Model the fold of this input.
Amino acid sequence: MNTLKGACIIGQSGGPTSVINASAYGVIRTALDNPNITAVYGAEHGIKGVLNDRLFDMSQEDPAELELMKFTPSSALGSCRYKIKDPDVDDTDYKRILEVFKKHDVRYFFYNGGNDSMDTCNKISKYMQKVGYDCRVMGVPKTIDNDLFGTDHCPGYASAAKYIATSCMEVYQDARVYDTGMICIVEIMGRHAGWLTAAAALATEFGAGPDLIYVPEVDFDMDKFLADVERIYKEKGNCMVAVSEGIHYADGSFVSEAKTSATDGFGHAQLGGLAAMLANVVKEKVGAKVRGIELSLLQRCGAHLASKTDIEESFMAGKAAVENAVNGITDKMVAFERCDENGHYVCKTKLMNLTDVANTEKKLPVEWINEEHNGIKREFVEYALPLIQGEPERPLQSSLPRFVNLKKVIAK
Amino acid sequence: MNTLKGACIIGQSGGPTSVINASAYGVIRTALDNPNITAVYGAEHGIKGVLNDRLFDMSQEDPAELELMKFTPSSALGSCRYKIKDPDVDDTDYKRILEVFKKHDVRYFFYNGGNDSMDTCNKISKYMQKVGYDCRVMGVPKTIDNDLFGTDHCPGYASAAKYIATSCMEVYQDARVYDTGMICIVEIMGRHAGWLTAAAALATEFGAGPDLIYVPEVDFDMDKFLADVERIYKEKGNCMVAVSEGIHYADGSFVSEAKTSATDGFGHAQLGGLAAMLANVVKEKVGAKVRGIELSLLQRCGAHLASKTDIEESFMAGKAAVENAVNGITDKMVAFERCDENGHYVCKTKLMNLTDVANTEKKLPVEWINEEHNGIKREFVEYALPLIQGEPERPLQSSLPRFVNLKKVIAK
Done:
């Protein structure tokens, strides 16, 4: 084994999730316990914390407090949306990163994020190889969007999916309480991929979910949508709809951004989101009581409904990144492989080349969308159900969440 | 004791809550077990179910299934918003109610609802007295708005408050994850009373809640609001705001309904709600990234975050209604009295005259609102904290909620 001694950095990047901190904790805990890793630094706001030499010394944190990261949503170290330049165009950032790495003797770099973050991670990895600086670089996946290439699923997805399914089941009860009917439109995140919106089908599976589901993998047709809603509403007296924020017309334009069209007929800026807009269109067309609900940030930070499986797998991804790196692996992202052991779901880690992962999107399989393009097939339910299992014993204070409070001691 | 034998009806009315079914279950379970009550009927859609003679025979339900009502949000029997006429103007409905009562030998009538429902309950009670039909009529309170007169708090409020506080704590984590600032505006229910919005102060109490809270008990001033937000944002780099849907200007007009004004400057209909509108105003004025989040129906059906205390008290209210009625009491609403036993919160039931309760609103005490009218004082936190305590062991199926499935067998 190729032993490499030195410090490590863990950074978090992109939109947070309910369990991204569980992955970071997997890295930090495993690294703190490893004799080859001489110091564990948390970068403040991802790669920006490296550029600004703002690194938290994680060994200064109380171990019991640190463990609360497993139950704390959002990025405890701070995140960023910083797009690093192509090093052939401008290598200023890379030189600075190398400088900070050398200053702190950083030999391990772990980057916790989605597509864009894996691109950053990949560029840094390749740069360090090019300049001959011995540093093992590993991507630790996270995204509620579930759209990372090469992994069965992504840490963070299942907890958001569980939040969405549970909330849909509850809204379903509420939205049909009167003898006068109602149409309810729930807007779910997912600009390009329908994985999150498809999670509403888990509610439908248990008899309390949307009648209609629209995802961005197929084109949206407003007239067909209105006919679908009107038909269900007339049949049942109620109608519940789930839509991805990213649904688009055949010409590629987002429905949410449509300012004027023959069908929706608005000539002014939309203040609310897609749900509010669709609710208005449906109200005009069907004449029913309509309510639009946007799950907004709630779906990605609703840690109180986190999947225990997701928390454990997220931790495992961070742990595997450190263990593999210490064992000589570099330039990879930890990914998940789904195994069937005697009919039981088991998740194992595997490794993907960062080059293959960076900037590649994995969409919801079109075969899992029904022929009418307004619903999700059972194959998806079978895929998603194992991921959302288990309730964590989340720490509480006065019956409210007890989140981590880090000291964030800056490394000298 | 004045023994009265006969059937009972339980009806649910008005906007549902996470625990209104726990109260209905308190009535149903207690009534099924009482020898003086010969039959237990659930009215389909409240008083409309009586008018239509659509009564479910609750003895036909499986007892274990029935108990799931404690954990099922929304009105399991169906609700209504039917406004019963003044009997001196038009007594058609009352005659019909009496007819159905006589048909099924109904001697006990329990009505589970808020202000308007207590008005219905009161009118029916007085009518039965007037025509000399021996029927004991009891109101069972529920409302997330917490605005019923004469009770320390209302069943349903605490669970919504807990949902709001928890969600604010989670959003707080998410909304400050980047090094670029953000302003986040959370819209909370409450057309006339600020109790629900004040619950956001519970999040602030634990260091992760709104910087600013606006309730409808005091007039809203857009310029002052914008100055408040801008000041906090400049000081902290982030700002989180909670607003009641019912905030209004000094002239009484709702901020949410303002079409044009010097300050908000819109000349067209609002599609989104108040949060979207305020987000736009703040964006224009402060120039920051702003996100509006409307908790919408989620806050009143989020049973997965129900307060165990609230569930138990809601059940207790239903139980007390039956026990008191069987003991000869009529024309009352069950209310809550807060007692201090050796420094511990204890909740006991008491009885209020329906006449006194009907249509009277209890607002958030103005003394609990800070002098700047942009925050909530600690007195409120001390009031609300005991109410949200405890996590119920909610039944799950595949880690998703298992709600009640009633057979709903119509009484012949």
